[in-house]
Structures are given as C-alpha cells and as structure tokens.
Design goal:
It is a single chain. The protein has 362 residues and is an alpha/beta fold. The protein has three domains: 60 residues, 434 Repressor (Amino-terminal Domain); 125 residues, Rossmann fold (3-Layer(aba) Sandwich), CATH 3.40.50; 132 residues, Rossmann fold. It contains 13 helices and eleven strands. The chain is elongated, with a radius of gyration of 24 Å.
Length: 362
C-alpha cells in the first residue's frame, strides 16, 4: 500500500488526485474490477469490493469523473452537510450560505447527517464524488476519513457552529460553553437555585457537549449542582419537550427553572407546563436557545438566546469563495450571542421583588 500511495502521489497533478489504476494496483485487482466495484457493486465479490474500498480510502481516491473535474475545471458548486433540516436554526444559515454562493455564480448541494458521523462521512464522500468545489460542515468533530479525503482532494472546507478559538481547522461560530454560562448566571441572578435541563444528545454534537460544560462551570462557581435525573436528552421536537416535562413532573417537585437546548424543546416544555396548570413564569421559568420565530409568539413570549445564524452562513460562504479565488480571509474568533429576555423567566418563586436583570453578551 505504501508503494502504491507513493506512485499515486508521483503521478498526480498537484491536487492530490488519484487514478483508478492506482487503486487497482493497491488492491491487487484490474482497473475494470475497480470500476465495477464503484458502478456495479453487485457484480463484485464482497471481500474484493471491501479491499478496493479500503485502498480507495487510503489513497484518497475520488470515484467517477470528479477527479478529472478537480484537475481541469470547477463545478461552480458548493456543498453543505447539516445535522437536520427540521431545525430552522440550520435552515436560516443555509439560506444565507446559498444566497452568498449564488451572488458569485455558485449553486448549493445540500444533505443531512442526522447527527450520525458515519452518515456524514458517506454523504461527504458523495458530495466530493459529485465534484463540489468546497464544503461546509457543522461542528468541530468529524470522521477522520472525511478530513483526509478533503485534504487529499484539495477541497477547502469550513466548520460552522464552531468557535475559531484554537481550532484545528477553519471554523466560524460561537462559544457554546460561554453561552450556557451566561444562561445560568442570569437565572441564578433571578434567585433560581433548582434547575432541570432538557437538551439534545451529545452524540456527534459538540455544541451540546460544550453547553453542558458551561452549565457545569456556572453551577460549580455558584455552589450548586444538577441532579442526574434532571438532565434529560431528547430529540429536538415539541412533542419531545412535552414528554420531558411530563417526566420531570412525575418524578417529584419541579425545579424553579428549566433550561432547554433549543427553542423547539422549550416551546414543548412551555405548552405542557401550561396544560398541567403551571403558571409561567410565576411558578416556573423556562429558557430556550436560538431565538426562532416562534419565540415571540408563544404566550408568554419565550426568553431565549439570539444566535448568529445568518452571520454563520455568510461567513462560511465567504471563506470558501475566497479560498477558491486564491485568497485568504481571517475568520472571526467568535461571533457574539445575546440573551433575549421575554416573558417566560422571572424571579424564583418566593422572592418578593425581581432580581437585577442581566443582559449578558458572550
């Protein structure tokens, strides 16, 4: 394999492209067999195909005609992989990304990973094979195979929703750890001492992991703790938020504040609390994250955090377009977030007057 890799590099065009014959030599099969493995896999024995795919991955081979496209011309296409399109946080950023790309004559190929790293790798490879000129990813953690493929094929890529502070790869986003610290400092300032958290899974989601670290920082600094049973991981849906509230209510006395991973979960928590006769914010404070359109229309309007969705999409596109134009641009270390205080948060029950408001910016 080392010899084949060296031959592939020597025969390349400076972009890291690898020929089908290089894969065939590395796998010990004919070029025709390699072609069938990619185009007519049912005609190739599974063990042979597995050997060919392993060789292709090791060499950074791009199937079909995309390698020739890379060497000769651009496709004028940018790719993006987001976790889901059911969350309008990503939709807003994608809209901004696409608008900027179209201004420069590029179109967008979009797919989703469903918070699955293997799926992200497969979709990323498919986009590369279809000749995208650059790629936007979400978060800072990805399958190493995907990073190797992008580097081997000379594809510029950018990690969105990831702070650029100390990042290994170009990134644009905000500090989720600081965001969570801001939320808990705000609630503690209102007198709250008992919390529950309803958020997404940490699996292939470094944004949630960062917010949980920020929560732990703030609680430790204030001498508080979060009981394990009050940390609930749920899918991002209104029904999941309602179900989470029912679980908390059935477990015993409610906390005085519930912090939610996004506004969709927070809306579900709010609706279920109201259905069970809980007064918000008099008995329970609820806070979301994202400042989606729904937040100003709930009753009462939802307290949340305004995150820079449009700015993330625009910066990500600008970075890729600059790289493709042979220019380097400096990405911001972190984009700002802002607490938006509305009607679902108030002083902890039993306090006679409202604690001083904190409109922190991180």
């Amino acid at each position: 394999m080392r010899a084949a890799r060296a031959r592939a590099r020597a025969g390349g065009d400076g972009l890291g492209t690898v020929r089908l014959s290089d894969v065939a030599a590395a796998a010990g099969v004919s070029s025709a067999t390699v072609s069938r493995a990619f185009n007519l896999p049912a005609l190739v024995r599974e063990d042979v195909r597995a050997r060919i795919l392993a060789a292709a991955e090791e060499l950074g081979y791009v199937a079909h005609g995309a390698a020739r496209t890379l060497a000769s011309r651009r496709s004028r296409t940018l790719g993006a992989i987001v976790p889901t399109l059911t969350n309008t946080i990503f939709a807003r950023a994608i809209d901004a990304f696409q608008r900027r790309a179209e201004e420069h004559g590029y179109i967008l190929l979009l797919t989703t990973s469903e918070y699955d790293r293997e799926r992200e790798w497969e979709r990323g490879r498919a986009l590369v094979e279809r000749g995208v000129d650059g790629l936007m990813l979400v978060g800072a953690q990805h399958d190493p195979r995907l990073i190797r493929l992008l580097e081997a094929t000379g594809k510029p890529f950018v990690n969105a929703w990831a702070s650029n502070r100390g990042a290994e790869h170009p990134s644009v986003g905000y500090d989720n750890r600081a965001l969570a610290t801001m939320i808990f400092d705000y609630l503690v300032g209102l007198g709250h001492r008992e919390f529950a958290v309803v958020t997404g899974s940490t699996s292939h989601n470094d944004r949630v992991a960062g917010r949980l670290l920020g929560m732990a920082d703030a609680l430790r600094r204030h001498g508080l703790t979060l009981p394990p049973e009050r940390l609930l991981h749920r899918h991002y849906s209104i029904d999941a938020g309602r179900e989470a509230f029912r679980e908390l209510a059935a477990a015993g006395p409610l906390p005085t504040a519930i912090v939610c991973g996004n506004d969709i979960l927070a809306s579900g928590v709010l609706f279920e609390a109201q259905a069970q006769g809980i007064a918000v914010p008099e008995q329970l404070s609820i806070i979301g994250n994202g400042d989606l359109d729904i937040t100003s229309h709930t009753v009462p309007p939802l307290t949340t955090v305004l995150t820079p969705k449009v700015e993330i999409g625009t910066w990500a596109a600008d970075y890729l377009l600059a790289r493709l134009d042979g220019r380097e641009i400096e990405l911001p270390i972190e984009l700002p977030v802002r607490l938006v205080e509305r009607g679902t948060t108030g002083p902890a029950p039993g306090l006679r007057r409202r604690a001083p408001r904190r409109r922190a910016v991180a």
